[in-house]
Amino acid sequence: MRWNRNLYRLYRSAPVPPADATLEPALPYANGWYLAALSHHVTPHRPLAVRIAQEDLLLTRTSNGTVRALRPYCPHLGAHLGVMGTYQKGQVRCGFHGMTFDLTDGSCVASPYGRTKGRLALLPAHESGAAVWVWYSQAGTPPYFDVPDMSTTGWSTPVAATFDIATHPQIIMENAVDEQHFVHLHRFTHPPGEITYCGPTIKLKLRLDRSLPFGYDFRLLFDGEIHGLGLGLSNFLFPDGSRVRLIISAVPIAPWRTRFWITHSAKLKSGPASRPASWLAARIMQALVCNDVHADLPVWHFQRYQHPPRLSAGDGPIGPYRQWAQQFYEGGASSKDLQSGH
Ligand code: FES
Ligand SMILES: [Fe+2]
């Protein structure tokens, strides 16, 4: 992607190395739902390899089209099923000794010379908003919150950009509550917004105003949700009822290295031009948001996790946000504690 190539050049030419080259990771991987791929990239016949928290995953589909996320190693003797597997009719056959596994539950269903009791390791996966979300937990904890329901009916196929940054998902999501940076870094004039913490979710209502040349003003009404540290969602509503949806995800791929996804899709009012207009609206919003995110990228890529932060009176609610984020780490505060305000 062009955005990435330009940024890569910027990062390569920076006079200092990125944060993951000079600093120890200050936060562990966090439990949560992470965007593994866009839905239309996952097919039943050819697995898609992705990486979350230093581990490879294969994405594929069962015979009825349900998405599956599996660890790539055959439970028999460990052949890599991204290389040695043949996928069809909801099963994968390993090319090393011929054992076949059912993608519904990971069990071995056929073998030329006796089945193994070992199973394919499947991870919780869910499709929503034209994306495949995979649950990651360092300790194997099952999902304790859901991916929000993001319908795709009538929405354009998402346009997406990804950025690999030396940072942590908690730092990226902290941006949303860092009120002063909207003013100083992004040049918005910004009255404080409404931020509500609700278990694993943060709800945000922000109004961002920006003065443009020749006396024009630009106003962005930002009605968003954050679900864990890996999923952010925002809807822009236009007066005629048309909508543009922003989905972001910060996916940990290695210690202090995060793949940041920005996607937009649109659902414009029906009419003969609604499809191309939706396509265009999604691209325009994508360009505008990516342009703003470009200001954040060099901050994140070289930033140290400042803990405790030395906050001033005018800062946004950084402290409550960091307390809220604890629920996503093994041994952190439970979401019940946080709901009761402790
Ligand atoms: S390693 Fe896969 S069948 Fe033996
Ligand atoms: Fe920002």
**pLDDT average, as an integer?**
89
Query: In terms of structural class, how would the helical and strand content be classed?
Result: alpha+beta
CATH topology of the largest domain: Naphthalene 1,2-dioxygenase Alpha Subunit, Chain A, domain 1
> What coarse outline follows from CA principal-axis ratios?
globular
- Give the fraction of residues assigned to helices: 10-25%
Query: What is the count of distinct domains?
Result: 2
Q: What amount of the residues lies in strands?
A: 25-35%
Overall strand count:
18
- Text of the CATH class of the largest domain: Alpha Beta
Q: Roughly how many Å apart are the termini?
A: 44 Å
Small molecules (ligands, ions, cofactors) in the structure: FE2/S2 (inorganic) cluster, fe (ii) ion
Topology pattern, helix = H, strand = E? HHEEEEEEEEEEEEHHEEEEEEHHH
Helix tally?
7
Record the strand order, biggest sheet.
12-18-17-16-15-14-13
Low-pLDDT stretches? 334-342
Radius of gyration: 22 Å
Give an account of the 3D structure.
The chain has 342 residues and is of the alpha+beta class. It folds into two domains: 38-136, Rieske Iron-sulfur Protein, CATH 2.102.10.10; 159-339, Naphthalene 1,2-dioxygenase Alpha Subunit, Chain A, domain 1. Helix content is 20%, strand content 33%. The strands form four sheets. It has a seven-stranded antiparallel sheet. Strands 2-3-4-9 form a four-stranded antiparallel sheet, with no helix packed on it. A four-stranded antiparallel sheet has the order 5-6-7-8, with no helix packed on it. A hairpin with a 3-residue loop joins strand 15 and strand 16 (231-237). The longest helix is centred in the C-terminal third of the chain and has 29 residues, at 274-302. It starts with a helix and ends with a helix. Residues 334-342 have low confidence and may be disordered. The structure holds FE2/S2 (inorganic) cluster (FES) and fe (ii) ion. Residues 175, 181, 186, 296 line the site of fe (ii) ion.
